[in-house]
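Appendix B.2, paired examples.
Example (i):
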Amino acid sequence: PDLLELLKAAKISTNLDESNEENLSPKKKKKTADNKKSKAESVNKLMDSITKGETEIPKEYLQFNRKFPLHVLKQLKKSGKSPEDFFRIGEPSRDAIIVISDIQNFSKIVRAAYSEDLNEAMFTYYRKAQELIFAHGGILDKFIGDSVLAVFNYPLRDQKTYLRAVKFASELILAGQQIMSSLQYNIDEKIETGTRVGIAAGEIWTLNIGLDEIDVTFVGDKINLAARLESNCLVNGILMSNIMQRKIAEIDADLFQMMKAEKTILQRKDVKGQDTDIITWQVPPDRVMALAGQGA
């Protein structure tokens, strides 16, 4: 393996082996900190061990690190299960949360912006999106142009994830505003832009589309629904499915009231791939900004 791959493997393994100090008492935390070697030393030693063939890091961890937050990889390692079993490849997950975003008028921005400025802006946007997804416990399925597809409440389930998914969506919209506003300074044309986000909750199926390594992705009607919600959403707003809003109302009634989501019915003709009209809940832009400004 080349040096970069070794560095990545060593970093991942060191992070996975670090103890979770959040649940330790102050006395134990101090003892742990006093006895703990620096991360740089640990990485260097592990790299040397990997180079000598004394330690083997499963290559799939390098792939997983691009999509999954650290706490999920820690649970994978702790479980002792194979990745296929842990991620339930080929099986349904009934309580998944799908978040899809899109930037308004992105094609116009592409035509108007200098390539260097556009590359820098989108690099910043992609990195920020991944950072926010992981910070709120989600999974980065993929980037599709300017769109972000993230999955929450999988493979580990937690009711609070419904709240975190909405929080992520609001912070992604805010990040998009800031990054696109900076890009606008270098464009002569005035282009109205912003981010639309659709969120659906329900069953999805997990697939492995990798050849030589596991590459997790997802399929299911709820992904299509999230995409239709996004396309019908107000700019800088969040459009949720009925199931999603019900979960939020049950888990945190105060938050749901603060969001001031308005019930709307999407006609069947506006939701391609759906057989009936769809009940949705629109979170208006001003409430999204209020939500983004709240603490985690």
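Example (ii):
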Amino acid sequence: SLFGMEWLLEEDRLQMKQVSEMPMKKHTKREVVKAVARLVYAPFPLHLPNVMAARILIARIWKDKSDWDEVISPARQKETLQVLNSLHQSSELSVPRKVIPEPGRPYQIHVMTDASEEALASAALVYQCDGETAVCNLAAAAGKVVAPKPKRTIPELELAAALQGRRIARKFAADGGRPPEQTVLWMDSMIVLSEATSEAKLNKYVSRRVDEIMGGDTGPPQLAHCPSQHNIADGPTRSLLHHQTDWDSWLKGPDFIRRNVSGKWPRFSPRLQRNLSVEEQEKANEREQTRAEAE
């Protein structure tokens, strides 16, 4: 094992190493932080949704302003047990050891970003397709708990998440030794999408971040809208527990990416219902386009 990961030789996959449970004497802030700290470290963000739930829990306990050796509230105790159980279940997860594309094979990076009042997160997927079969795997991810001060709006946090995702994609491309043929940045914030494509003058806070998102040696990424139900970065920002997370989508990407062999990506319309499936969204988009052409 290395850095909390075990190498499954026969399958050539990496798996989280099982950590023995450490019973807490009392549910104090000190004991909770100690218990969580033993379980959240991992060099590869395999179980980021579980890790973010733990980080958000610690932030909530901090906001309660309890002393280090003071017993936390019953509600926080229940939340702590749920989070610790989720972290222990991380040992069930595994990913391919090698996600860097083979030399000479084109690949794409698809980054999904999201933010809430408590956290922001981004996940980068490596997608390869030969026209008949598609392979998509989680390659990198990052999350951050929102600081209480200064107070930021949701659009500002969504912009920060998009910037975090862009940096992840750029770092992966640099480490891989060659740029992707395409980088797609998916998000559900129409405000950020509008700011990133606007020709109007933006304030300095927004302008500097948009410039970094759209800049770089590999050219600007393709920006795309993605409803929350298809956005794998949505879960880590909402403190979802292990059993509430769609791990198949987290590790392999949402269906509309990993099962796509055409290389053409759906255009989600924000005006349509957010609970539509990908296929229903595409049909609705076609009807909208036909109606617009007729007019």
